[in-house]
Amino acid sequence: MESVAELVASRWGDHRPGLWCRHPAHPQDTVLTHHEVAAGAAARAALLADLLPADGPPHLGVLLDNTPEFPLWLSAAALAGAAVAGINPTRRGPELARDILHTACRLLITEPTHLPLLRGLDLPGVRLLITGTPGYDALLAPYADARPDPSRATPADRLLLYFTSGSTGAPKAAICTQGRLAAAGRSLAGQFSVRREDVHYVCMPMFHGNAVIADWAPALVAGAGVALRRRFSASGFLEDVRRYRATYFTYVGRAIQYVLATEPGPDDRDHALRLGFGTEAGTVDAAAFERRFGVRLVEGYGSSEGGAAVQWSPGTPAGAVGRAGPGLVVLDQVTGAECPPAVLDPAGRLLNGDEAIGELVNRGPNLFEGYWRNPAAEAERRRADGEYWTGDLFYRDRAGFLYFAGRTDDRLRVDSENLAAAMIENILARYRGAAAVAVYAVPDPVTGDQVMAALAGSFEPLGFAEFLLAQPDLGTKMAPRFVRVLERMPVTATNKIHRGLLRREGIRCADPVWWRPPGRATYRRLTAQDVESLERSADRTDGADGADAEGPPVSTRGPSPVRRQGLEPRTR
């Protein structure tokens, strides 16, 4: 097994252009050769040897946008046998301090634009190193003649501590060793035939595993170039792709949808791009992207922690991620039994979601290397019998192809029936006014959950109700009780829909909310009087039995769904 340090050192003497980045304040790009990247990494690795104390784990935090300093410090950490914790710049206050301190960072690399985030934070024992300043350049100067020496590192050394989503609590720092990262890069480089002449466009944030594992690592393995976008920009996407003659990029979340929302042009296919690799684009958007730009998108699945992966292959049906490999099974979360195969209609619509959807589990060998100092979360993923539970919902057809159905956190339970939010979203996405859809639960003490949908785009209540009635795969419990209509979906720093925020805000939000009263098939605007009526009903009634044909009634026993969301009327 090879180390990332060996890959970094192998670029010494390669004087082809290897790293591009545009500075917002300068008209010209920063361009470094592969040799200059290796030399810069060697200098920073030598500096690390002097700065990192010997009495603790060799961890450094990197709080940077996608500037050349990010891959330089990743490469330096590899040479030094140290680990990088990618720090999310959208975190604030105590949460930001918690991320830095939890990962035991003794050194924090940042830049002037992020200094306001650190003001007032209590970070004992953490030394700050600010890039792009005279003091920083002076600190590096004595190490300018250093050469990359990979002998200090091994494939077993930790290299990445990258945070997973914090939607269900504090983010967890997943561990990735040099060997795993190098192996992932080599696998992807082989799968997508990455060449030395290629240029990988890195527009997703490098503090996240997607950009490093799926974009930077295969480029490093193949000796391909890397073009950095400081922060993702849908309007700047095509310009950058042309500017750097990019051939490959990765994406997550809503990024593809944002690019598709830009104004089409007659020269949309005038570029060198040949492939995009990522998750959550969806079948409809992937097809639209290929029609417009002539670029195939490959939807893949790999748990952030390395415990399971599904590869796309020729013949994979539309909507499927790929064929289940050895050891991958879909299990019922309660009984642990294997879920029956999915029953699909001729249009590919799932007809038995309640029994077919379960959690994807890897019963075979896996690459999960644990979480940093979080044994409880680690035990949740890696069970005593060695099985790795991904935390992701899937269903499997009779031919063995797997279909993603959302996170386990996104499962709803309505009147004792389990529903996957992703399945309802796929149906609602057919609505002609929907630019983006998110489905989530409004808790209810009687029925378990009520279905709420956030819809970005245009909404016509009668037309929406008629649309729902026309969907053959929309079960009686699936129709949203509440619909929040907004101009733009809230997203995280990695362009994923911010479901946690939507859940927290519930029905008391700044956007208009439409609702379908019990026993009704049509929607009307939810008013303050409606909220008060629901609360009064919940306070004076012991309970409600059964459900109407369109879905469960609003709870009238115990704390109402409105109060449980902390949605008591606000004063202005």
Secondary-structure map:
Layout: H1 4-9, E1 17-22, E2 29-33, H2 34-51, E3 59-63, H3 69-80, E4 83-86, H4 93-102, E5 107-110, H5 115-118, E6 127-130, H6 134-140, E7 158-163, E8 173-177, H7 178-191, E9 199-202, H8 209-222, E10 225-228, H9 234-243, E11 248-251, H10 255-260, E12 275-278, H11 283-293, E13 296-299, E14 301-302, E15 309-310, E16 322-323, E17 328-331, H12 353-356, E18 358-362, H13 375-381, E19 388-396, E20 401-407, E21 411-414, E22 417-420, H14 421-428, E23 434-444, E24 448-457, H15 461-469, E25 482-486, H16 499-505, E26 513-515, E27 524-525, H17 528-540, H18 561-564
Parallel strand pairs: 1-10, 3-4, 3-5, 4-7, 5-6, 9-10, 9-11, 11-12, 12-13, 24-25
Antiparallel strand pairs: 1-2, 7-8, 14-15, 16-20, 17-18, 18-19, 19-20, 21-22, 23-24, 25-26, 26-27
Helix pairs in contact: 2-3, 7-8
Question: Strand pairing plus helix content: what structural class?
Answer: alpha/beta
Could you give the count of β-strands? 27
Question: What is the typical, i.e. mean, pLDDT?
Answer: 88
The main pleated sheet reads as: 7 strands, mixed
Spatially, the strands of the biggest sheet line up as 2-1-10-9-11-12-13
Distance between the termini: 62 Å
CATH architecture of the largest domain: 3-Layer(aba) Sandwich
- The CATH fourth-level homologous superfamily of the largest domain: ANL, N-terminal domain
Residue share in β-strands: 15-25%
CATH topology of the largest domain: Rossmann fold
Q: Which blocks of ≥5 consecutive residues have pLDDT under 50? A: 540-572
Name the CATH class of the largest domain.
Alpha Beta
The tally of helices reads 18
